[in-house]
Amino acid sequence: MLTSQEKINYLRSENQEFGPISLVVIQPNSFCNLDCDYCYLPDRNLKNKLSLDLIEPIFKSIFTSPFCRDNFTICWHAGEPLTMPISFYKSAFEIIENTSKKYNQTEFSFNYSYQTNGTLITQAWCDFWQQYPLSIGVSIDGPAFLHDAHRKNRKGGNSHELTMRGIKYLQKNNIPYNTISVITKDSLDYPDEMFNFFAENEIYDLAFNMEETEGVNDSSSLNGSEIEKKYRYFIERFWQLITESKLPFFIREFETLISLIYHQKRLNHTEMNHPFSIINIDYQGNFSTFDPELLSVKTPEYGDFIFGNILTDSLESICETEKFKRIYQEIKTGVKLCAENCHYFGLCGGGAGSNKYWENGTFASSETQTCRYRIQILTDVVLDAIEQSLGVTANNP
Ligand code: SF4
User: Fold this and answer.
1) By Cβ atoms counted within 10 A, which residue in 109, 111, 191, 331 is the most buried?
2) Which pLDDT score is estimated for 35?
3) Which tops the pLDDT comparison, 397 or 77?
4) pLDDT at 302
5) Which of 359, 369, 371, 378 has the most ligand 1 atoms within 8 A of CB, as the residue to mutate?
């Protein structure tokens, strides 16, 4: 007769195909205090809150899952996580630690992160965060004139000043943070202004997300081949400014690519298209896997992307459902099409199903505008620049 831990270990050895879980994304509240015009979330005006009663069942499911085979991050995300009070997270973190003591027999470690618009950060939040291994992701689109064009509060007012106040709190308290900037058509004329803004404010750990056609944002300002040319110039110029600068910039997109190139590593999937690398859980305990963006949306083709509920289904039990099998099969077909047809596959891993669905109407497809921006143009720019610096361009073999 196996003990419960021996049974979990057995299931882990039998379920190596999926996972390991690297990221658990939890929605503490569907509400967001901002109303950004490019947001994909349909329910960001509703105040649907996660009950503390769900925290133990959620983490019992994670810790006892065959897909929990490594350390992972718990990210509070979507709507705005700081619309929940600090007392909620104090209790939630305590329950998570206690659940870990009970069920995390292998003692995988976990840390916390928040993805926030930064407007509600105060000294009290920083005092709380300093007690935990944690990092904060702040959404800021660069200088005020770019940020405030899209990131409005619910009365139509600007949010940049409050977001910067939040970042200053993080800096003053030495709390690790990074920023994500959504690149819209408006950003593309201002690479120098973006660079100068981040340099002057000593914000060095950056990431760029493209404005995507997704969810209720049914059209991106980046659509069109002329815009793709402008984006190429934007990336070329940003690369030039970064490489000429002596400042300690870390740009997620450049670093990921350079790391793969220099270490001669290649990808055959991403966390977004591999089951159970990412677990997404909404305020009702409904869960999904693949892209976090899929959790809160519905489509005519697939309905919603909820595979189960933490109170009634184990993570592994959903693998046998028709819904999971259909979506996974289509995502796999899309990745295979990428592998067969795209020169960039090894640096990409076949992209994200949500982009393929929203742009091409099916997961079983390959190229999207998003991947041209995020992977193809970026790779061309970085490889050209590296080749030029090494004197191995086509004109100078
Ligand atoms: S760059 Fe696009 S087409 Fe190429 S592998 Fe990635 S997702 Fe597929």
Assistant:
1) 331
2) 84
3) 77
4) 86
5) 371
pLDDT at 154 exceeding the cut of 90: no
Q: How many angstroms separate the CA atoms of 196 and 152, rounded? A: 23
**d(CA 365, ligand 1 centre) in Å:** 10
**Nearest residue by C-alpha to atom 1 in ligand 1:** 371
* Tokens 């061309």 -> residue: 380
| Residues 375, 380: Cα–Cα separation, whole Å | 9
**How does pLDDT run across 184-210, given as a tens digit for each residue?**
999 999 999 999 999 999 999 999 998
Tell me the pLDDT of the chain averaged across its residues. Answer: 91
* Extended beta strands in the chain, E state: 23-26, 72-76, 110-116, 134-139, 177-183, 205-210, 250-251, 278-281, 286-289, 298-299, 303-304, 308-309
| Gap from CA of 269 to ligand 1 centroid (Å) | 11
**Minimum-distance ligand 1 atom for the alpha carbon of 342:** 4
- As a whole number of angstroms, the distance between CA 346 and CA 269 comes to 9
pLDDT of 397 above 60: no
**Pocket lining: 351 vs ligand 1, CB cutoff 6 Å:** yes
Distance CA 340, CA 366 (A): 10
**Ligand 1: nearest atom to the Cα of 375:** 1
241 has a pLDDT exceeding 90: yes
pTM: 0.91
Gap from CA of 213 to ligand 1 centroid (Å): 16
**Ligand 1 lined by 9 (C-beta under 6 Å):** no
Distance 340 CA to ligand 1 centre (A): 10
- 83, 305, 281: which is closest to 215 by C-alpha? 305
Compute and round to an integer the Cα radius of gyration of the chain. Answer: 21
Which of 128-132, 198-202, 222-226, 266-270 is predicted least confidently? 222-226
Q: Is the CB of 375 under 6 A from ligand 1?
A: yes
Q: 359 CB under 6 A from ligand 1?
A: no
Q: CB–CB of 79/41 below 8 Å?
A: yes
Using the predicted structure, report yes or no on whether residue 37 has a pLDDT greater than 90. no
Confidence of residue 376 (pLDDT cuts 50, 70, 90): very high
Residue pair 329/290 in contact (Cβ under 8 Å)? The answer is: no
Spacing, Cα 300 to ligand 1 middle (Å)? 25
